[in-house]
Amino acid sequence: MLFIGAAAAALQPALQTNGYDGVYACNVYQARNMLIARCIKGNETLPEVIYCDMDMGEQLIAHFAAYLAVTKEFVYIPFILVASSEKHNALHFTARQNVDDIIDVQTDAAILLDKIALLKKYKNLKSRLPYQLTPPQKLIKPWAHVFSRTIDILFAATMLTILSPVLLMIALCIMIESRGPVLYASLRAGKGYKVFKFYKFRTMVPDADKKIEQIKHLNQYDVKKDAAGPMFLKINNDPRVTRLGKLLRNSSLDELPQLINVLLGDMSLVGNRPLPLYEACSLTIDQAAQRFLAPAGITGLWQIKKRGQPNMSVQERIDLDVNYANRHSFLYDMRILINTPKVLMQKADV
Predict the structure, then answer these.
(1) CA-to-CA distance for 197 and 187, rounded, in angstroms?
(2) Which residues of the chain form CATH 3.40.50.2300?
(3) How far is CA 93 from CA 145, 197, 260, 316, in A?
(4) 8-state DSSP, 183
(5) Phi and psi at residue 26, in whole multiples of 5°?
(6) Taking every annotated instance into account, which residue ranges of this chain make up the domain Bacterial sugar transferase (predicted)?
(7) 3-class SS of residue 37
(8) Collapsed DSSP state (helix, strand, coil) of residue 210
(9) Is 117 helix (H, G, I), strand (E, B) or coil?
(10) Number of neighbouring beta carbons within 10 Å of residue 81
């Protein structure tokens, strides 16, 4: 691994404990020279990941990230910025263009390892995707990203304010019904395999995640028996769901805390569903990996077309996600958003 700057170097001890060696560069100029020297010598391996201190400055970061993105020897290397908590979201939009992720300097080593594994897979798969899969006219321009992000923030902030009494009432009911946290937070993989904490109202008994192996045979998706494991997991009449949880799921009220994820920039209003890490890791073929080129969203093409369909196959689910990844645009997202309300209240006991 290559660590650029003091903040990035602070991650080195934790990663070394897990078997990762690293080299240090004082600034991006020295880092670039080190990378070039390794290419010229040919007998030294390139770093698996590059961590860069966010204090290096936006312009230098943007130029260095752009250099990595256009150099074929380095395009496969994940480029991650390291920031303190108060600076985590301070980077200007233009400097994020070729940055794979931004992490806190205090990030747990286990989470770092998950991010490394997923980002390496994403960078390698993305580089092999045929360019014709996403026509040039479908590519979203930077101004469209800014416009879409502005709408996400305004909508999420407005809805959280308006629905605050409902949110408080739901939280109180959850606390009364069963012990455990009000919110369920799990690590999910979104656009570009970016790992983040995904929030929902808790609808299951405590420690439900630990019981997945016990109920895997109830998976409604059509997964071949000889497969290493299901890529998607959805249980009809899941025994782990509480009585209140069943009501929240049928009305989709359990999804409301994801507005927090939208405010944080982890998700958009419309996109592909962020996947649990065990599902994201199973999508290893190029075609399936295309779903991660699209943003993660609260609602999306799969929700409005196939929500609750018990006989949907894994391939149908993947095809819908890939379809959205290749077609998504502001107008397409608006169409999906407009069609979402009529399916939110449908009774789907899943």
Answers:
(1) 5
(2) 2-128
(3) 9, 22, 20, 35
(4) E
(5) -70, -35
(6) 149-345
(7) helix
(8) helix
(9) helix
(10) 27
- Token couple for 106: 């205090």
Length of the chain (residues):
350
Per-residue tens of pLDDT for the chain, all 350 residues? 888 887 767 777 777 776 777 788 888 888 988 888 888 766 567 888 898 888 888 888 888 988 888 888 888 888 888 886 555 555 554 456 788 888 877 777 777 777 777 777 777 666 554 433 444 334 455 566 788 889 999 999 999 999 999 999 999 999 998 888 999 988 888 887 777 889 999 988 877 666 666 666 666 555 554 344 445 666 667 778 889 989 998 888 999 999 999 999 899 999 999 988 777 766 655 566 778 888 999 998 887 876 555 566 777 788 888 888 888 888 888 889 888 877 665 544 44
- The secondary structure of residue 221, as a DSSP letter, is S
The residues, any chain, with a CB within 8 Å of residue 289's CB and separated by 6 or more, are: 121, 122, 125, 126, 129, 283
Query: Cα 223 to the chain's mean position, in Å?
Result: 24
**Distance from C-alpha of 318 to C-alpha of 183, rounded to nearest angstrom:** 28
Tokens of 348: 């789907």
Contacts of 28 (CB under 8 A, 6+ apart): 4, 52, 56, 60, 61, 63, 64
Distance from C-alpha of 231 to C-alpha of 60, rounded to nearest angstrom: 40
Q: What is the DSSP letter of 2?
A: E
Going by C-alpha positions, the residue among 328, 196, 331 that lies closest to residue 265 is 196
Q: Which residues pair with 79 in a beta bridge?
A: 50
- Tokens (6 digits) for 41: 């010598």
Two tokens at 18?
């897990």
In the block, tokens 């819908």 appear at: 320
Angstrom distance (rounded) from CA 246 to CA 98:
42
CATH superfamily of 2-128: Response regulator (3.40.50.2300)
β-pair type (195-201, 183-189): antiparallel
DSSP secondary structure code for residue 295 in this structure: P
Q: Is the full-model pTM beyond 0.70? A: no
- Chain-centre distance for alpha carbon 191: 5
Identity of the amino acid at 242: T
